[in-house]
Amino acid sequence: MRHDALIVGGSFAGLSAAMQLARARRNVCVVDAGAPRNRFAAQSHGFFGQDGVPPLKMIADARDKLLAYPTVRFVQASVAAASVDDAGGFAATLDNGEQLSAHKLLLAFGVQDGLPDIPGVRERWGTSVLHCPYCHGYEFGGRQLGLLFAGALPPDHALLIAEWGPVTFFLNGSDALDADVRAKLQARGVTIEPGRVAGLEGPGTDLTAVRLDDGRRVPIDALYVVPRTRPASPLGEQLGCAFDEGPLGPVLRVDAMKMTTVPGVYAAGDAAMAFTNATLASADGLTAGVSLHRSLVFGG
Fold first, then answer.
1. Residues 232-273: pLDDT tens digits?
2. HSE (side-chain half, CA atoms, 13 Å) at 200
3. Which of 37, 118, 175, 284 could join 268 via S-S bond, C-beta 3.0 to 4.6 A?
4. 56 DSSP assignment
């Protein structure tokens, strides 16, 4: 069967796009590997009408609602390869060997976070090691907060984190602070710690202290890390899509209608946005779904 649209990625962006196509009674296939970026978080915050709901539940509920439409197919797999086919559409090979084809292709596979190689970071990611104060800051409000300098955002990012509580800015051996930024941070009450971080401490996924390489332990309840990101799939490169360098890593270049530089290939969500957030990803998917449908109607 040749689908009207093949969507790679079934999280906030991909499911939102698929819903628009399903409601337009188009045949759409969503392929998803079941590993959304926010799977490590117990709750999602700030999403309209869904504050505090686990992100995996939000995704599961959205998928169930989508599959109520008879023209939708969902496949749990990864897309190993995709290319333009002889008919001007797209052919895709899944990691289970299945072959799919579609008139249009939407890339909504998201990104992967390049976490620093510091003991204790990975096992606490999404619980007490965080990347977004708007998503998780309220729950740690007024407690001892840390920010690990990783080079992905400017040093004055610590001023933002300080809105939620007292902050220790761990430079981790970097000398990136100039005198002006240092003065601003100190005026805001941010403690600047120049030493290298050796590891994190605390029971389970809780955080109680950051251990420095000189043996000192700094009491911390939550540590913010802003890692660089990379696309979660190589499909954009395979297809020849152009990328732009965003503040946190490469993002697929799209126009106002969410089409990439390859005709017929659309992109939405974290892989196509400079700044990422579940609400923004969902809205981005909606735009992509509507734009893709209009291209099926009007051409382009």
1. 999 999 999 999 999 999 999 999 999 999 999 999 999 999
2. 29
3. 284
4. H
According to DSSP H, which parts of the chain are helical?
12-23, 55-66, 133-136, 157-161, 179-187, 235-239, 278-298
Phi, psi angles (nearest 5°) of residue 81:
-155, 150
CA atoms in the 13 A half-sphere facing the CB of 113: 23
Give the whole-angstrom CA distance, residue 43 versus residue 169.
26
For the chain, where are the E strands, in sequence order? Answer: 2-8, 28-32, 72-76, 79-84, 90-94, 99-107, 111-114, 129-130, 145-148, 167-170, 191-193, 197-201, 209-212, 217-219, 222-225, 228-231, 243-245, 250-252, 265-267
What global pTM score does this model have? 0.95
Per the CB < 8 A criterion, the answer to whether 3 and 102 are in contact is: yes
174-205 pLDDT, tens digit per residue, is 887 889 999 999 999 999 999 999 999 999 99
